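Re-run with default settings, no changes from the original entry. Doing this only to confirm the output is reproducible before filing.
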Amino acid sequence: METGFIKNLLSAISAIMAQKRDYLIELDSVVGDGDLGLTMSDGFAAAAKAAAESGETDIGKLLYFAGKAMSSAVPSTMGTLMASGLMNAGRMLKGETSLDPGKIVLLFSSYADGVAARGGAKPGEKTFLDGILPAVNALKSSLEGGASLDKAAGLAVNAAEEGYEHTQGMLAKHGRAAARGEASRDLKDPGAQVAVFIMQGLADSIKEQGR
């Protein structure tokens, strides 16, 4: 698997973010400023376009360039966080020209690390991390257990969905939701829902590529 995998992955994530744009706007309007759907659809569209138009053969550089394009397109808080994830994944995979399953896990774990480093959040604080980290763990454990990439991606989606559901009950410590104090426990986190859609993009791209 080479840079074509990354291009297809970003295209699939972009497609699902466009499809779910209005849903994310509605979800975010309850706890944020309602721009999440636009940020994610525009941001991942910019990342996918940059990757698709690039002739770069270095997977890390391709991810980094895609992250830079996203950062320029949507310089909001969430846009910057998601772009930071892409750029950190790019740094960790610099020099790679092919991806085995272990490196796909590294891609997503370093994505999560990049978001965490930029935003300063920790698991359990009602953020994107509460959706993506369970997904990364499920992806890693299932692949190590011998599951196919297709099966592992499906399990990662399920884990992200469970993580999203579990954000209800957590106390928000970041963003506008934090201003609600204890009342924030009643709501689910839109950022964790974004993590679900990213993992769904992975699953969709793998099916499309027959992996």
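The first helix runs from residue 3 to 19. The chain has a mean pLDDT of 93.
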